[in-house]
Amino acid sequence: MVITCFGHFICHFNMMVFPALVLPLGKQLNLDMAQVLGLCFWMYLLFGLTAFPWGIAADRWGAKPLMILFFLGAGLSGLTAATYIDSPLRFSMALAGVGVFSAIYHPIALGLISKEVRRISMAMGYNGMFGNLGLATAPLLAGILNWFWGPGGVYLTLGALNLIGMGLMIFLPLAESRHEKETGLEGKNGLVGVFLILLVAMMLGGLAYRGATVIMPAYFELKNQWILQAVSGLWAGNLSSNLVATTVISLIYMIGILGQYTGGRVAEHLEPRFSYLVCHALIVPAAFLIAIAQDIPLVALALLYFFFLFGAQPAENTLVARLTPSQFHHSAYGIKFVLTFGVGALAVKLVGGIQTTWGTEAIFQSLGMISMALVAAILLLISRTKPMKPGHQAPSANM
Q1: Is 208 exposed, middle or buried (0-12, 13-18, 19+ CB in 10 A)?
Q2: What is the pTM for the complete model shown?
Q3: Mean pLDDT, the chain, as a whole number?
């Protein structure tokens, strides 16, 4: 769990540094917001699309060499991004490298947890907490480093942290059991259709997740002017609006750690299908209200939005484990992240297009409609499966 938790921290740190730099990069490169968002498209797309082949590779060759490659490749890509920070094309290509190598983490680590840990939901919750710690640290550290050294200093730090992770992988043991549990889809081909419904739900969740996280730092910088003025009045120095916005985002993502823990506990003791449904149902009104809120109400609504968005993840990962045989868990999680992060990368284009055409406020209205479709998919999933008991019993299809 030490390796998987640290890796989860680094993986999300890698992917969440960029949103905190949208406006500073725009000023440095003389680009508008939609153009800056376009620089990260390939990073987020490849982060999702390459997850499945990485999962197949792990099912064949094991986890440790791929985890070493994750840290090494992402680290070198981060250093390259820092080197070419003033060249939009080369910088975008380096970001794509960060995405490709960071994609290794999820199918490998979640496959390990689902096969090696008995209390799957709780373990997913703990692992998710460290992912949220990466989410929370990334905008805060990026805001501080950007304040002192600009975006280049941010990506130098990103590269160094990944290379430290490679050192940990080399010196710490990573045991993999050869015992395979006969669970999930094996011998239950009727569940294939149910798993496909779950994939649709996870794809919609990926759109909501990526859309919200990629725009939120810039959204806060534009919509929290009262908070910015209040904080600046208490600070003698020249405090940047970017630093204030990224600090608030970091605090919100820290609350997401509590969401992951709570989601893990609930999914372990109650029906994972229904905990999954309730979390996403509560996201819908929060998304629509964020579209019209600003300052303190906006922060409060964002806290609720991300608490339940992250709180749904342990139940979602438990459902993936329940609906697939353990010998294919790496590949199954690979398929999941192709949809959640690969298709979810389209949210970058979606957000940019909505912002250009209808304005910033329309972004969260659109994310609210996506969450409504996600709730409908979960209801369909529930209607096609029989009740699941807490623990490790596989569900049966009601077909």
Answers
A1: buried
A2: 0.73
A3: 82
